[in-house]
Each structure stands twice: as structure tokens, then as C-alpha cells.
Amino acid sequence: MCCESKRRFLLLYATQKGQAKAIAEEIWQQAGAHGLEADMHCISEMDKYNLETEKDPVVIVISTTGTGDPPDTARKFVKKIQDKTLPPDHFAHLQYGLLGLGDSEYMFFCNGGRTVDQRLQELGAQHFYDTGLADDCVGLELVVDPWIDGLWLALKKALQLQKEKEGMNNAVDAVSSSLSTAQHAVHELNLSSEVQNLKLEDDGAKGSDVLSQKLDDINLVAPARDTEPSLVHSVPPVSQSALNIPALPSEYIEVQFQDTQGENPHLSSLISEGATFEVPVTKAVQLTREDAIKTALLLELDIADTAFEYQPGDAFCVICPNNVSEVEELLHILGLSEKGDNFVCVKVKEGTKKKGASHPQHIPERSTLKFILIWCLEIRAVPKKAFLRALVECTSDAGEKRRLQELCSRQGASDYTRFIRDSTVCLLDLLHAFPSCKPSLSLLIEHLPKLQARSYSVSSSNLYQPGRLCFVFNVVEFPAGPSRPVSRKGVCTGWLAELVAPLLHPSKNTLDTKGESPSTEKISIFPRPNNAFHLPADPSVPFIMVGPGTGISPFIGFLQHREKLREQHPDWEFGETWLFFGCRHQDRDYLFKQLRCFLENGTLTHLKVCFSRDSSTAEIAPPKYVQDVLRLCAKEVARVLLKDRGYFYVCGDKKHMADDVSDAVVDILSMEMEADKLEAMKILAMLREAKRYLQDVWS
Description:
The chain is of the alpha/beta class. The protein has four domains: about 5-165, 3-Layer(aba) Sandwich (Rossmann fold), CATH 3.40.50; about 270-320 and about 455-505 and about 520-530, Translation factors (Elongation Factor Tu (Ef-tu), domain 3, Beta Barrel), CATH 2.40.30; about 320-350 and about 360-450, CATH 1.20.990.10; about 545-695, 3-Layer(aba) Sandwich (Rossmann fold), CATH 3.40.50.80. Strands 1, 2, 3, 4, 5 and 6 form a six-stranded parallel β-sheet that branches. A six-stranded antiparallel β-sheet has the order 15-12-19-10-11-16, with helices on one face. It has a five-stranded parallel β-sheet with strand order 22-21-20-23-24, sandwiched between helices. Helix 17 (about 625-630) runs parallel beside helix 19 (about 655-675) and helix 18 crosses helix 19. The protein starts with 6 loop residues before the first strand and ends with a strand. Mean pLDDT is about 85; it is low at about 170-225 and about 505-515.
């Protein structure tokens, strides 16, 4: 039950990777200092709250996953409120404020939050506070921090109005006095993703969430002669500022070491998404030449003896481990090398002050320490500011302590973005940079997120290759830099490349390579079906595919499937197919030269390729990028989309390709329709809405 002396509000969060939960916990922690009590629940716990009868204000923090879907924890809630039989005044009694989290690198920015927000409005609910949309592309805190700052005044106003309606004016005198001086501020917050319009002001200490740290209390990190800031060194004004730093997060985990006897849990127990399948890797081919800038691999999995099903265009997830050498290094720094094989019991700390503290679902009740660090915790995660704040207390050197305080402070926000977030610094990097920092194992379990399975697009057709599943990926490289002492490969792609090294055949650049082996290497996977990125249901409908680099992956499955359908149904009418492919060099990273076979047998009607880094002696330089080739085919593209009502598929890099392709399509529609750009953008929006312009992109 909530404390009688504090006014209650309902706080709901819907999270995929823990970010929304962490922000909700920050709101819960700050509430007490403002004389409020947050009744916090995951939005999936619908037995613990009831919006139909809720009288107090509701605060919702919700993330977005996939291509714009609400997080898995919100699926039941969203399904419930989207019931078409609900009357338009169903939530007329409800007052709420919503904070959406998203990434503007993706087309449907903050769509999880927008979906819930729009539906609550349709059902009569009222905003007591403007919706905030935070952008992980530039830093969530740029919207989250001012949104939370303004929340308390809005909540008090909503609670005051609620009491007035109940005829309890005498109970709100104290709140009224605080409102009279700053009531206008609530509606002046511009909480959009256009963070350049945000002006963050330092209003000094604001309750228990902020501590003031005076400069003269500590030593500087480095000599004053250093004029450039770095991960470990600050310069004025940050180095000379009093700091507003977050409150210390409550500890809530304790770890007990046990003996070395027993067995670790099966990997399938770590996944809540459904059935997992352990399948052998039967083939591996390197599709790029050794001198290519990126290394692309194709792997083939044997799924014949499983119930795994997929369609071309679907994705699936690979359960991957952290790099073992990095885990060993982490154990050494923490002084736990001798205990890696010991079983540990993880429990909630008795008497913890953390609201709703519970055993982390991604941590087994009993497993070895190495198992937790290898399979359960994302040790490569970029540390959040709350983690940095906790690490301050584990750091003995005064200069290092000060720098960590700066990095998690309001004043050091730009340094955090530059040297931690944008540099993708991880825990190991921090421990190397701040050697006096010695966190406990329990602290790592509290702050490191769940190690997520990695998603890949299927690059095959079960009709073409029964019992086989193929996928293609680039081996991700993170070069060494000022904030990262050593280069690293991607968590999953690096592991897969090492796993299949014995399978790789010296002959490359062809799918026909006999890179097969009786290898028994297996990986664990689970399906992640794509609800929209599939071939048109009507085979007579034409479609265009745009997939440079590994973005071509799902389209290989499309073409394989179409080839088999043409063989099996010679009497069917099949629409024309267009493929726009691009890479850097024709002789180094033209991933699928078998595309010519699809062209020759009629499966593929038009193949357009371009090579961005190849030099040309032609009088008119050939196009470098897929968007340039699209413009050269403007009339045909417009015909397929407008006259023939065809489909348009884009797969690949969001930041450097998908947006440029979208702009090219707008230009094509504008030119061919002889319409202004705004009208062309409306047509493209209609194509998206009709699921005829589809994207499978990543940042």
C-alpha cells in the first residue's frame, strides 16, 4: 500500500531491453522528494492495476522495438486497448502523461509510444502533461531529463485539480502555493525529437536525485596543460563546475559463491520468446575477397530435423556468447579469476530500498560465474549514467572519481555523449581507463543489461532448399581509438566467424563452393517472423528490390522462392521483378554473382548494379549508388508503383542508404506525376500505409 501522507500516481513501463524500466525506476526514486508516491508496475502486470477504474494520474514510459512495434511486454496491453468494441469514452476518466523511447534512425520513430498515446486519446483519455519522445540516436537524456524535471509540477497540478473535483480544496493549499510561481512552465516544455531546440538549464539541486559536488573538494584528473578533453580528462567549464549528479541507485542484489559441482542451465532457458532450436552449421562461404573493406560470410544451417519454419523475408535470432577472452580479462580485473567455475546463487538483498526489486529474469537461479558473464550479461553494453554513478563509489582515486562524476552529471552531458555513447565504450574500456575502479559482481548484475540474441534476415527459401536456412552477415569491426585501447569484432559476428573458420573454403565469391564439412558445430536459434516483409500474395504483382551490400540477403530468398514457383506453376502469371544492388568494388564484394542465373532463367526481369569505389574511364561516369540508379530508371519505377500497383522493398543500412532511397523515390514520384514534393511525400506515405513500400533496415 502507498503511504497515506504522500499523493499517489500510477507509473507503468513497457520495456524490451531494460531502458524504459530504468527510466521508470528513476521517476519512482525521485517521486519521494516531491511528496509523491509512485505505484510502479510493468505494463504486462495487468492483474496489479486497472486503468478502467484508475482515478489517479498515470505516467507511462514505453520503448519501441523491431520496425516500430511496442515492446513484447506491452503486446497484451496494446491488444486489449485496440479492441474495436470499446466505446470512445472508455477512458474519459483517465489523466496520463507518456514518455516514448525510440531511435530516429528508424522510419517509425517512437511508434510504440505513439500507438499507445493515439489509442488512449481515441478512447477519451486526457493528457495532464505533454508527451515526450526521446531519441536514442542523439541521446535519450536530452529529452528524458527535462521531461522528468517538468513532470512533478504537472503531477501536482493534476492531483490538485482532482482534489478540487472531489470537493477537497482545503487539502491542496501547499500545492497551490508552489503552483502560483511556476504554473506557466508546464506547457512551455518542447519535448520533441528535435533536440537542438531544447535548452537545458541548470536550476541547481532539485530534490534527492541531485547532489552538488564542489570542485575544490577533489583533485583534477590531469595536469592543466591538457587542453583537449578525453574519456579520462576534462577541461573548463566542466572541470571547474559544481556538478549535478544523479542519486546513487539502491543496491538490491547479493551474490553467494558456492562449490564447483553441478551443471549450468540449457541455453533455451534464457529465452522467453518461445521455442529455441539447436542446429548444425553445415556450410560456410566467404563472399568477399580478402582485400575487401568488409568481410561477408554466408552460413547454411540444417533445420531438417526441427519444427523451425520460415518464409522468405523473415528474420531469426542467434543466441550468442560474449567473447571468452574478454570475460577472462574482466574476471582478472575484478580479482575473480579463481572463482570463474564456482557456482553462484543470486538473490534479492534483504531490506533493499529499491522499489519492486526482483531476481533478474535473465540470470539463472544457480549457474557458474563464467556462465553468467558469457551467456547472460551484455558486457559490451554502453554504460548508462546510473551505472557510472554507482561506479563512482567503487573508485578510490580522487581524480578518477571526479571524472566519473562529471561523465554522469548534467554539466558533463556532452562529454558523456562524445566519449562514452558515441565511442561505444564498454565496461572493460572504463575499467582500463579508471584502474582504481573495482566494482563488485553484484553491481555488474544490477547494471549490465541482458545479453540479447542477434537478429538476421533469412537468405533462402525452404521451397528452393528444403531443410536448409541460409543467412549473410558482415563481420563487424570496432577499431581501437582514444576511448577503446584495442580493436574488437562484433559480439555475434565475431563469434560466428571464429566458430566456422574450419568450414571456410579457400575458393570464394560463389554460392556453389563446396565449403561443406561433417563439422558438428551447432548454434541455438529461434524464429522472429516478419509480419509484412514478404513477397506479394499475388504472384502477378510486380515488385522492386533495393539491397546494397548484405541488404541483398532477403532478396536471394525472394528470388529462390520465385524460381521454384515458376517451375511448379508454369500456367501462373508472374509480375516483373527488379533488383537494384550496389557494393564498393565489382571484383572484391559483389556478393552474389549467381544473380546472373536468375536473370538468364527469367526469374529476375531487371538487374541494376553499381560499384561506388571503382574508377571509370567512361566519358559519363556511371552511377555510384543505388539511389542514383533508381533515378535513371525513374519512369519504370513510377510505372511499377503507380500504374501497376507494385511493391517496393528496401533492405540494408538505414543511415547511409535507406533514407537516400526514400528521397529518390519522392523525387521520382514528383517528377513523373508532375506534382510538388509534398504531394509526392503523401503518395509515399500512402504506399507505406498500404504495406507496398516496405523496409528491413538497421543502423
